[in-house]
Amino acid sequence: MNVVGKTGGCPEFQKMILGAFRDDPDIFLFRNNIGAVRREYKGKESFIHFGVKGSSDILGIAKKPSCSACGCPTGVGTLISIECKTNKGKVRTEQQDWIDNINKMGGIAFVIRPGTDKDLLKIRQRIISKINDVCTNCSKKGIINECH
Questions:
Q1: Which domain holds residue 49?
Q2: C-alpha pair distances (Å), 83 with each of 15, 46, 58, 90, 129
Q3: pLDDT tens per residue, range 19-34
Q4: Does 42 fall in a domain?
Q5: CB 63 within 8 A of CB 77
Q6: Hey, which residues does 48 pair with through a beta bridge?
Q7: Distance between CA 83 and CA 112 in Å, rounded?
Q8: Report field, pTM of the whole predicted structure over 0.90
Q9: Per the structure, how many domains does the chain have?
């Protein structure tokens, strides 16, 4: 079996990001692998494709805090999708579509680069600041005292 295709352009940067968030109680991240494997079975060669084309290098979930309006636990996590690019790397159309769709659906998706995104605390704050801390019921009702 042979793995076909390129690996990401910044594997060391990805490892740094994943390592930095390993013990974070509010954010769980993991490497998302995408590609294909060539294999031969009963004399026939075929490809096994895995992952979703355009999906980000790092996926994860951020714990949503308790509702700041009523205090109820939200019990909801927020999808995180981080595309790692080299300083000159270009975001492909399908990658941008993925990022746009995640953001439209209430997730957190963005591109990071080693030259401009070295401050891990800023990356963490970027994730945490995008998580709405008011539960859906309070947000819909526009109230502060009640939740369910």
A1: 2-141
A2: 13, 29, 6, 11, 18
A3: 888 888 888 999 998 8
A4: yes
A5: yes
A6: 37
A7: 6
A8: no
A9: 1
Rounded-to-integer distance, Cα 55 and Cα 51, Å: 8
Instruction: Give the residue among 148, 59, 65, 39 at the shortest CA–CA distance from 109.
Output: 59
Residue 147 lies in a domain: no
CATH code, domain with 77: 3.40.1350
Tokens of 27: 């954010």
32 vs 85: CA distance, rounded Å? 14
- Domain assignment present for 121: yes
For the stretch 88-130, pLDDT in tens is 999 999 999 999 999 998 888 999 888 777 677 788 777 777 7
Separation CA 24–CA 7 (nearest Å): 26
pLDDT tens, position by position, 43-80: 999 988 888 999 999 999 988 766 666 767 666 788 99
- Provide the token pair at 30: 């993991």
Q: Quick check: is 7 in a domain?
A: yes
Range list of H helices, the chain: 11-20, 93-104, 120-129, 136-141
